[in-house]
Amino acid sequence: MTDEHRTPRPEDDAARLGLVVVGEAAALHSGDEAALDASEQNIRDTIDEMIDEPLTARQEQVVERLVSAGGTLTAGLSGALAAQAGRSVDEVLEGAARSVVWQQRLADERDDAGNQGGGGQREDAGGQQRDQRDENGRDED
Question: Cα–chain-centroid distance for residue 57?
Fold first, then answer.
């Protein structure tokens, strides 16, 4: 069986949606109408590719609004965190995207360990970023 025929795991879907939300947040922060339009189209395309049965028009609107609201929330929190940490919003959003990808990798490793008889210990997806601090607790650049 090839990868194109395998059923996506919930972790894969969550990671994909997480990256769509981060993309929406980046588009909102950019203020670029073309980026916002592309992000909205990406939301629609992602939803269309992930569903098994067609949604009603209302269901599709609700899902699109949920993802968009997640992007708005992510944009606001990223802006606040960037201001507090003295970082750019882009750096914070890149960190969010890395965390999403890292969490998916951890899920893959847990699945692999589970298939080999191991328990697969759950790890913190944000740990790879927190570990990059010097002895005074400051981010290493």
Answer: 25
* DSSP code, position 5: G
Element containing residue 43 per DSSP (H, E): helix 33-50
| Residues 103-131 pLDDT 10s | 888 988 888 887 776 544 445 555 544 45
Q: Which of 124, 133, 102, 118 is nearest to 18 (CA)?
A: 102
Q: State residue 133 phi and psi, 5-degree precision.
A: -120, 150
Q: Is this model's pTM higher than 0.90 or not?
A: no
d(CA 31, CA 91): 17
Q: Read off the pLDDT of residues 10-34 as tens digits, 9 standing for 90 and up.
A: 888 889 999 999 999 999 999 999 9
Buried/exposed code over 102-136 (b: 16+ C-beta within 10 A; e: otherwise): bbbebbeebeeeeeeeeebeeeebeeeeeeeeeee
Q: Return the biggest CA–CA distance within the chain.
A: 54
